[in-house]
Design goal:
By secondary structure, this protein is α/β, with parallel strands linked by helices. The chain has twelve helices and ten strands. It starts with 9 loop residues before the first strand and ends in an 8-residue tail after the last helix.
Length: 265
């Protein structure tokens, strides 16, 4: 993995238990993103996606904000760059990431920060979290998916109101509308994110990756084709299993049913 920028503005930490932490670390600027930070963030997710020692990733921001968007003092450098370059695009790399990504959102998730949160698989928000889309206010055209993803999660009418008025969406309302999974006090945010990560880590690692992929890939299709995709991947999965693997599966299920200790598959 390439080294982060000298200021260490994107911090990556891996725990021995398979949980990795990615932190946007520019608190004095409310974690606004410069071009080098975007590149480092993209590289971090690319690296963790292929790291077999990592099962789950928790993404957060240091200080009072998750991410306040792009640093507008370097806007030209950011917006006139190659927006189609997926290798240095953090949202594209998050979408490609094989591992489940849990977003731990505290304070502001503004515009690009909002889009980064939408690239997470699960969102935990603190009670003070606010999601704000300021594209329309500042004349910035969305390119990280906010115009398409939000409406698919909370519905087009609510998404139009959030985006066209640039009105902050509170954590409470975000949970009610299905954007956020859990809302907790700020002091409990990372604890809750880790609790969810640990629950994921208890399961079959290979199936977790496959399950995330089929959910996310199927979400891009209509229901008919998504169901066909599920059938196709299930067929591929079971056809690839050996008799020994089927035996281990049966033993695992039997042990769980009888509440006897069992090793993970």
């Amino acid at each position: 993995m390439d080294k982060p920028s000298p200021e260490n503005l994107i911090v990556v930490k891996k725990d021995p238990d398979g949980i990795a932490y990615v932190t946007i670390n520019r608190p004095k600027s409310l974690n606004s993103l410069t071009r080098p930070m975007m590149v480092d963030l993209a590289r971090a997710f690319n690296f963790l996606s292929s790291d077999d020692s990592v099962g789950v990733i928790i993404l957060s921001g240091s200080g009072r904000s998750f991410c306040s968007g792009v640093d507008l003092t370097s806007a030209e450098d950011v917006f006139k760059g190659d927006v189609k370059d997926v290798e240095t695009d953090p949202v594209a790399q998050m979408e490609r990431c094989r591992k489940p990504i849990i977003g731990a959102v505290s304070g502001f998730a503004v515009t690009a920060g909002f889009e980064i949160s939408l690239a997470c698989d699960i969102l935990i928000a603190s009670t003070d979290a606010k999601f704000v889309d300021t594209h329309a206010r500042f004349g910035i055209f969305p390119s990280w998916g906010l115009s398409q993803k939000l409406s698919r999660i909370i519905g087009p009418n609510k998404a139009r109101e959030v985006s066209l008025t640039a009105t902050p969406l509170t954590a409470e309302k975000a949970e009610k509308w299905g954007l956020v999974n859990h809302v907790v006090e700020s002091s409990e945010l990372l604890k809750k994110a880790r609790e969810v990560a640990e629950a994921i880590m208890k399961n079959n690692r290979d199936l977790v990756l496959r399950y995330k992929a089929v959910i996310n890939d199927g979400g891009k299709l209509d229901l008919h084709h998504a169901l066909l995709l599920e059938k196709e991947r299930a067929h591929e999965y079971y056809n690839g299993m050996t008799k020994e693997q089927f035996k281990k599966m049966q033993e695992f299920i039997a042990a769980r049913s009888s509440k006897k200790p069992a090793s993970k598959l």
